[in-house]
Amino acid sequence: xxxxxLRKKRAPAAELYxxxxxxxxxxxxxxxxxxxxxAGRVYWQHDRPELATTEADKPLPSPPVVLTPxxxxxxxxxxxxxxxxxxxxxQSRPREDEKFLYVAGHSRTCGWGNxxxxxxxxxxxxxxxxxxxxxxxYTWNPDGSKYSDYNGKKIPSLIPYSVMIAGPIVGDQxxxxxxxxxxxxxxYFEAMCPNKVIFIREDISEIITFKNSAKEITDGWHDKLAxxxxxxxxxxxxxxxxxxxxxxGDPRAMLDIWPELSASPILTHFRWSPLIELAFDTNRExxxxxxxxxxxxxxxxxxxxxxxxxxxxxxMAIHVRRGDFEAHCRFLxxxxxxxxxxxxxxxxxxxxxxxxSGDPEADAEIHRTHCYPSVPEIVRRVxxxxxxxxxxxxxxxxxxxxxxxxxIAELRTALGRDQEWKMITSSRDLALNWEQKYVAQAVDMLxxxxxxxxxxxxVRMP
Length: 462
What we know:
- Keywords: Membrane, Transmembrane, Transmembrane helix.
- The chain crosses the membrane at residues 25-44.
- By secondary structure, the protein is α/β, with parallel strands linked by helices.
- The protein contains 17 helices and 15 strands.
């Protein structure tokens, strides 16, 4: 029979009560079991003995924070400069025999090679004028900061020149019989000379015939200073460099002054600093046969440049500038730049006449091979020089470069495949301490100076 209604039939009250009590006891049971389980767990954790943990169970410590040390500021070198014996700090004004020349508009924010060649000529100008040369610092940033940023890396804003060089330029003695006043540090000059006679570059540059002639510039200042009795002379800082970029970029600029400059104590007694010589000695097995009896450079008794830094038989050095120089070479090519002044001296084997065919792209490509050569072009040039009489018996090759390690590896491999070498090294291979690292270019220059053969870059500044 079908049901006559959709409503459920209501259960009796007694049955409902039993169902309610069953559900209630079930909930109580579940809650009770959970509480007993938790209590047992707490009890067990509290009373059980500690288990030994192994080193592997311990969490790893956080890695230490490694801070890159800041570049050196070379304070001890500056202090040593201030202690030079010619500095008479007890006096308040110059002695009767003291006359100074400070070129306040010296180069700033430029490469070491540019600053170095200017320093040599400024020192020679003071020497020829019979005045104490006032030397300052290599200056990247003159704003008073300790550090500057260069391509994302910190560098010292100032470096005392005595970090890199030694000799009369930075206050050492002139050779016996030369009574030219010794060079002094700028701080001493400022203390002795609160009031100065100030000249501007145009006082001379406007009256000479060939404005890029280093000799005419030097002789003009010599004549100007000869009539000045005041001991305190400097050039105006906003007047700029006496020997500027136009001078150093002109292949004719050094031709007439070179005979006298090269014979002066400014060059004959020029030396590299003990820090640079130590770096060379530390890495000498890259350049000199280990069995050689030659004493270390720092123990050489010779004072003259030629005797102290003799050529190393069998060593070739090549200068391969990379990095930001690519864009600079494009600029130099666009203006058909000649070989720089010091690279156009008589006796140097290579000559270069910038092409001016009327085809800018073709001319720029020819210029590039002299300024920013490719790896195959470098390999070919090394091979050519090695086949000459000057390149006879070359066995070791040093690459002076700021290129990255990948580029150096490519160049080293190509050179090694083309010809057999006992050793090929690069600037990146040198073991340098923290102070030497920031003046490493001077170490390379010492290596290049001593090489039997040096292949440089004639278009760029030395």
